[in-house]
Write a structure and sequence with these properties.
The protein is of the alpha/beta class. The chain is built from eleven helices and eight strands. Helix 6 links the parallel strand 4 and strand 5.
Length: 279
């Protein structure tokens, strides 16, 4: 098994366990990755509870933003959620698309898919479906979605370039995405970069902010906007699992940071000749 496949298997197993936990248990950990903090709060997630369409049963407290709030979803849209978990963002998106729209959730973990399908059935949402799949190869036809959303998931994927290529493929011309993710400014200490637990917890799998934004541009997207940005502060009791006291002090004094960003970009509507269409 190569390293990328090892990472994927580790993420699948970790999030399979998370699917069986409640939100309170997940929020006592590092992005739901395990009981690695004595602080009972989630160091990344935003509050969904005020958004229309919110379903407490579908909220596992695993996100790092509110991409559906910024996604400009319209009535009748087809929306794809990458890394849909128990269905939280899908159900909020469905509130925006209405009965005439369609929402497709994609998740790598069988236990998450099962939980999301049960939640959709209980809510009576016939136009929300969940498909198991790898977002490096999204199980959706090309030019399907008006909007793609994702919440704290791409940082878990080894080949982020491939994911952005897939997002471009599944979006309709003129479609757009809003994605919340974790990025870095400056280099993480080696002990943190190599920490499997922090990879599943959204931190060690993050890449440099500049590189992340460049991936979006080089894959053909336009009108890139950072819709929201906030710093992520990892509590000392998590860092002490990986760094000694001297390393911890060096880490905290460095000019580096971990951030949650929500990014918007569009798939240009073209005539097939590289120029933008007006109709």
């Amino acid at each position: 098994m190569d390293n990328n496949e090892h990472i994927k298997e580790m993420v699948k197993q970790k999030y399979g366990r998370i699917a069986l936990q409640d939100k309170e248990t997940n929020q006592s950990s590092c992005c739901g990755s395990g009981s690695c903090s004595t602080e009972v709060y989630n160091i990344m997630s935003d509050d969904y509870t005020t958004l229309n369409g919110y379903s407490p049963e579908a909220d596992l407290g695993l996100g790092c933003g509110l991409p559906t709030l910024f996604a400009k979803i319209k009535t009748g849209n087809t929306v794809i959620d990458l890394g849909s978990g128990a269905g939280n963002d899908c159900f909020i998106a469905r509130n925006e698309t209405g009965e005439d729209g369609r929402v497709i959730g994609i998740d790598f973990t069988p236990a998450m898919i099962e939980k999301a399908r049960i939640n959709a059935q209980l809510l009576g949402f016939a136009n929300v479906e969940f498909r198991q799949g790898d977002i490096e190869s999204i199980p959706v036809s090309a030019n399907t979605a008006d909007v793609v959303v994702s919440n704290c998931v791409l940082n878990l994927v080894p080949n982020k370039d491939k994911v952005f290529k897939e997002i471009f493929r599944v979006l309709k011309p003129g479609g757009h995405f809003s994605i919340s993710d974790v990025v870095l400014e400056g280099n993480l200490p080696e002990a943190l970069r190599n920490a499997a637990e922090l990879y599943a917890g959204c931190v060690a799998g993050a890449i440099q902010k500049e590189d992340y934004l460049q991936l979006i541009k080089t894959n053909g997207f336009s009108n890139l906007i950072i819709q929201k940005e906030k710093p992520i502060i990892i509590p000392d009791d998590i860092l002490k699992n990986y760094l000694n006291e001297k390393e911890l002090q060096n880490f905290k004094s460095r000019s580096m940071g971990i951030f949650s960003i929500t990014v918007y970009a569009e798939k240009t509507k073209s005539c097939g000749c590289g120029t933008e269409c007006c109709n």
